[in-house]
Amino acid sequence: MKILGFDFAPLNIPLSRRLETISVFTFTCCFLFLGFGCLFFCLYVLLFTRYYYLPLAYFAYYLYDRETPARGGRGHQLMRHLKIWKYYANFFPLKLIKTVELDPKKNYIFGCHPHGILCYSHFGNFCTEGSGFSELFPGLTSYLTVLSGQFMFPIFRDCFMLTGAVEVSKESISYLLSKETGGNAVSVIIGGASEALDANPGNFTVRATKRKGFCRLALKYGASLVPVYSFGENDLYVQVPNPDGSRLRKFQDFCTKRLGFSPPIFHGRGIFNYNFGLVPYRRPLNSVVGAPINVEKNENPTTEEVDDLHDRYLKALTELFEKHKVKYGVSENDHLVFKD
Fold it and tell me: Which compartments does it reside in (predicted)?
C-alpha cells in the first residue's frame, strides 16, 4: 500500500513478523541513543532533582568498576538467552554456519568481517544466543570486543556487558586469552569503525592489510585464529554516496580519526514502511565460521613471524569468501578488496 510515495506494510502481517521488526528496532535505538540517553538522564537527576545522591553513588560504583570491561566483562546467560534475540535473528534471518569443529580446550580469536553499519550479525552471533552459538560450539564462551567508549556511558555500560561485550584493547584481549584451560572465543571486528564507511550493498571491501595486532596477540598466547565472514552485512542499509576523496568521505575520515567512531549517513526501512527509517532491510545474514589457523605460542614474536601469520590469515579469509560466496548470493565475478 503506497501513500505519498511511502510503501507501507499491510495491516494483516503476522504478529511474529511485527515482533521481529520491533526487536531489531529496539536494538538499533539502544545502540544509537541509549548511551547518551542514560548520560543525560543521570545529569538531569544530579542537577535538577532532589535525588542527586543516586548518580553520585553510581559514579562511585563506576570508579570502582571501571576496569571490568577489560577484565572479561560481566556476561550473563539470562541476558544472552532472552526471547527477543530469537526474534532478532529471525528478522533477517541471521544464521551462524559452522564449517569445522572447534576444540573447547583452546582459546580463539574470531576475526569478523565486514563491520557493516551497526554490526548486526556480529552482535547477534557473539553477544546473544539468537543464532545458537553455544549449541554450535559447546564449551566455548563468546565475547565481542567493542570500542572502549561504549563503556563510558552510565547504566548502558552495565547492560551492554551482560551480553558478553568487552573492551577492544590489548589489555582486554590478553586477559581473556591468558586463560590456560581454554574455552574463550574472542571476536574482533578487524576492520573497525572506518570499515563502516564502505558498507554499501555489493561492496566487499575489507580493511585488514595493516591491522596486525590481533596476530601478535594470537602468537603471544597461542590462540588459534578463525576467519568469519558475514554475507549480507553490507546489504542492510543504503549510505549516502561517499567515494574515497569526496568531501563527505574526507569529513567522515576526519571524524573517525578524531572521535574514534565513524559517522556514516544511511537509511533503511521503517517499522511500518519499506522505504525509509532506521530499521535495516530484511536481507539474509549468513555468517560462515572458517577453519582455525593453529598458532604455536611465542611470547616474543618477531615482526616477520607476525607478518607471516597475518598473510596466512588473509589467505584463509579469501579462501573462505571464495568457497561460500555463490551459495550466499555473491556473483562469481565479485572478490574481496583489501584496504589499509
Answer: Endoplasmic reticulum membrane
